[in-house]
Amino acid sequence: MKKHLMDEILHVLPVSLREMIRAELEQRGQGSGEISRYGKCCGQRRGQIQEIRLRTGRPIHVLVDGREEAIGGNRLLTTGDMQETMEFVSRFSMYAYEDEIRQGFLTVKGGHRVGIAGKAVLNNGTLKTIRNISFIHIRIACEYRDCAKELLPYLYENGVLQSTLIFSAPGKGKTTIMRDLIRLISDGNRCGEPLSVAVIDERGELAACDQGVPQNDLGARTDVMDGCPKSAGMRLMLRSMAPAVLAADEIGGEEDVEAVFEAAGCGCVMLATAHGESLERLMKKEAFQKLKQAAVFQRYVQLDGGSCPGKCKAVYDAEGRRLCSG
Fold first, then answer.
1. DSSP of 1-24, one letter per residue?
2. 3-state DSSP call for residue 112?
3. Interval 86-107: pLDDT, tens
4. Which of 21, 26, 224, 233 is 20 to 30 A from 55, comparing alpha carbons?
């Protein structure tokens, strides 16, 4: 068990629960469970803890091998526990995180995503904020080194990296495989020479920057713009860092798409992720129809996920022809 990762998780939990949870998770790390920054795709140890869920009036649950298990004995979480957790998650400034709260999740040190649910506050039918937060979902960020290696031959053509869009349903490993691809492209690999990569890390999940310094390994030739909206960040990095590759997580809005068009027009290779259960469903969205018609992406990678984060289901070319199946 990595001590610094354990500390990152415990830091956002109620003080009265930390030592009890530490002891139980450490015990699991010696036997059937662990928290680890690193894993091996399709070969990680069974019992690795992937998520922690807090629910008011219920015990703490951890997700292990796709199954939720209660920990902490008979200790039930209180409203005070949830309030205290949110204070730590927001660094004692809920107001400063209003935009993130409105989206339903925040990202904490280490790149761990904290999803929230409670009482929705509406303004003219639009979600304004979330109050009385009673449900918290902590998704533990983990670097699965080399999980993208098998994909590399399909993403290069005659030694040239092709612009690639990675898509899947939520929670199937898009960010996991994107992180490893950035590292492999930045450092160079058997399919191509090292390339300079600019990463727009709007939610802090790719690089997990702390005071501007990435805590995750994104490669030696990677520059990161942390906490910046994707559309503005892509334009800024194109001007300031002159990258060979531009990487952004979870594109989808009209502004994101326009920025991707600009990057492609500058001759920059684009690496991005998006939500989509299938290529057909993805292409029903107008924004992605425009990108496909303009052949902005030469490769589309569909992930399967399941118990293996980032597992590839299929790779398609710009015309939608299947190049391989997982």
1. --HHHHHHHHTTS-HHHHHHHHHH
2. strand
3. 999 998 888 888 888 988 988 8
4. 26
